[in-house]
Each structure stands twice: as structure tokens, then as C-alpha cells.
Amino acid sequence: MMGYHYFDHAAATAMDERVVQAMLPFMSATFYNPSATYGPARQVSAELELARARVAHWLGARPSEVIFTAGGTESDNLAIHGVMATALRSDPSANLVVTAIEHDAVLRPADKYEVHIAPADSQGMVKVSELAASIDGHTALVSVMYANNEVGTIQPLRDVAAVVSAERDRRRAAGNPLPIYLHTDACQAANYLDLHTARLGVDLMTLNGGKIYGPKQSGVLYVRGGLELQPTIHGGGQESGLRSGTENVAAAIGLAAALDLVQAERQGEVHRLQALQRLFINEISVRIPAAKINGSLKKRLPNNVHLTLPGTDNERVLVKLEAAGILAAAGSACSASSQEPSHVLRAIGLSDDEAQASLRFSTGRATDEAAVRAAVDALVSLA
Length: 383
Fold this sequence. Notes:
By secondary structure, this protein is α/β, with parallel strands linked by helices. About 40% of the residues lie in helices and about 15% in strands.
């Protein structure tokens, strides 16, 4: 990254050197298949289970409730397809509710079923009352992301959990046996927010190692004990039968190490990034008065600044920013090649022209005050 200021931590983070060191033995000398029965393999299996327990600690969960996957997308797919496949066996009319601002890793699998879309307000906050109205007696799953990957708004998960809990009570009283579960995609939240699943009231949670200074293609799905989930990958029955295939031990070790680090260092990093965020927003407000900050200013990830520069084209601005040494994004990296305006920005009421004039700056460990001032200077020169 020599010569650049990196403002796309929401898309990818550099692996922490401590994570790399934790992974290295399992990529060379300690390479054994954890399912084998001889001594060295049993030791690898023990290390894998230790990593599982470390993840479970931060989730307030049992190790058996932690499933290692190959990333956030796979975890989201397993949650949605797994719950819906089970629900449809007992209720052919089973449906699910998701929000309009979910990542495509939730929206695309949800489209395979009868799905109700709950709207968000102009700040990117889910409208809980309208989400509640979308739930009926056939709803098997509600999926609400913990924090939005584009505009950074933190969702009221506890309020959503209360809605789901009230629906469970109604079903018990009515004799409706269909379970209803709450899933959250917490990929963007894991660096900065509490992940304790019981405090949040969630039944399933998705994590992604590549967003927390761990390895790409590493992920977790938390599955609350007693929840019946159908696997999407079949084979040797690894990961409690939910994710068959020889485990990527190095990736699991790396994800666990990365989660340990970001959660242990969370408060200090949140405080540091909030100061940089305030500086960024204040400087933009003063120096580019026409700019609009998107998303909630109060309930927001500390590393996110999402803005609209009226009358500009974000693709052209990004090219010029890169030439000035600033790497930023127009939105989700997973949909960057799409010519369509962001579905998240449309959902919060931006016109297509406004969406096309919007940029995301996401900070991280590599960001300091000099980088923020350089980004603002570059934007001022282009505005």
C-alpha cells in the first residue's frame, strides 16, 4: 500500500501479523487432517476445537454452536437455506422477512423463497413496526444485519429480537408449532460492537474473517443450540454435519486469533476512529457545504463516512482520488462491477443520480489524521 491512503476497510482488511504467525504452523508442518485418528492429527483437531471455543467466548455461546465456514457469504447462505429447508418440510407456505438494506449474500438466497422485504428509513434504520407487520404465522426466519456495510447504520437488533420473541409467544398461545428465528449478518460489526448473542437476542450470527484483519475465505455461523438446520454442503459430516469437507484449520485458527484481537482492542479502536470520523465529517461539512452525509450520525459504525457530492459521478471521482493517492469505494465491493445504483441507497430514498454521486470511506487500523486530511483535501479539489 505504499503511496496510498486506504479508505476501503469495509471491503477488505490487511491480515494482522499476529494472525499470520498463528496460522503459519498449520500451513506447513502441522498440516494433518483433523479427522484422522493418529496422534499428530488429534493434536490438530484439539487446536481446531480451541479456536472454536475462543470464538464462542466472544459470542457468549457454547463451542458446539460455532460452525466454521469459508466466509460471510457461505454463512449467510447456510443460515437462510438451512432454516428454510427445515421449515418447508412442515409448512409449505413458510416465508422469511429480510430488510431492504441487507447485503446481497442475504438478499440473493432469500429470493429463492417467499420473502417479505421490510423497509428502512432515510437514515438506513430498519422500520421495526413495519418489519413486525411483515411477519405472519408462516414466517420461519427474520434476517436483519447488525450494521450496514454501505452507510454504516447500526440496527436496533434488540428491538427486532423483542418482536420475534413476541411472535413466538403468540404461536405458543395459538398452538402454531412453526419455529421462528432471528439471524444477523454481523460481518461489519465484529470490529466495533458487542457480539454476545444472548444479549442481542439472535439465534444465528454471521462473521467474516476477512473484515477483521483475518484471512479471507474464513467465516463463522453461530447456530443456537436446538435449532434444526439443514446443511447445504453434504459429505463427510464435518462441522456438526452442517459444513462437510476437510476443515481449513489455518483459516479457523486465523479467524479466532483475529476475533480475539479486535474484540480485546475494541474500545480503544472505537474511540480513536470516532475522533477521525468526527474530523472527516466536520471538515467535509465546512469545506464542501453541498455534500450530504448518508446514514445515521448517532447510530453509526465508527469507521464509516458515506457521502453524496451532488453533480458528480462517483466512478470518475474514484479514479481521480486514486491518482491523488486515496483508495475509496462507491459502495459494496461485492457489487462494484454492477452498473445499477446501490439497492441500499435506493432503499434510503436517494435518487439514481444521487446514488451515482455517492462515495464510501471506511477507515481502520491503517488510518490516521494525516490520511483523513489528505482525503478531504483531495475531495475539495474535485468537488
